[in-house]
Amino acid sequence: MMITRFWQILKDDTKRTFEVCGQVANENSFTNKTYAMQKAGMHVSCMTPPVTNKTSSKDLVRITGYTKEVGLQERLLKEYREITLTSYDEW
Predict the structure, then answer these.
(1) Could you count the other beta carbons within 10 Å of the beta carbon of residue 20?
(2) 1 pLDDT exceeds 60?
(3) Which DSSP state fits 89?
(4) Is residue 8 a contact partner of residue 23, using CB atoms and an 8 Å limit?
(5) Given Cys at both, which of 3, 61, 71, 90 links 50, Cβ 3.0 to 4.6 Å?
(6) Rounded to an integer, what distance in angstroms lies between the CA atom of residue 48 and that of residue 12?
(7) Angstrom distances, CA of residue 2 to CA of 55, 76, 78
(8) Please, where are the H alpha helices in the chain?
(9) In this predicted structure, what is the pLDDT of residue 81?
(10) Is 4 a residue whose pLDDT tops 70?
(11) pLDDT tens profile 15-67
(12) Are 16 and 67 in contact (CB under 8 A)?
């Protein structure tokens, strides 16, 4: 069986929250953005588990020790933009 779809799950490891951001066939862009946030000093991580029958709906996705936060991705992207703009201004 070939896995063709992955969930994009973004986690805020400081606040212990997560958001299921959607499904993709190729998760490279998503993971690269997460790594960029980590390099900027943010305590975030991501997961890209396969979509299965048990997790066919994003409401069924659970992460032990984390609670769902609606709007997490947008909040973290805003924070990342502020960090990168600040570091750009320091140049």
Answers:
(1) 20
(2) no
(3) H
(4) yes
(5) 3
(6) 15
(7) 16, 32, 35
(8) 28-39, 72-89
(9) 95
(10) yes
(11) 999 999 999 999 999 999 999 999 999 999 999 999 988 888 999 999 999 99
(12) yes
Query: How many angstroms separate the CA atoms of 10 and 17, rounded?
Result: 9
Q: What angle do CA 42, 47, 50 make, to 5 degrees?
A: 165
41 phi/psi in degrees, rounded to 5: 100, 5
**Which region, left, alpha or beta, applies to residue 22 given φ > 0 means left and ψ of -120 to 50 means alpha?**
left
Nearest alpha carbon to residue 11 among 30, 24, 28, 26:
30
Structure token digits, residue 79: 């924070």
Alpha carbon separation from 63 to 3, 8, 13, 80, 86 (Å, rounded): 21, 13, 12, 23, 33
For residue 6, which amino acid is it?
F
For residues 61 and 35, give the distance between their C-alpha atoms in angstroms, rounded to a whole number.
22
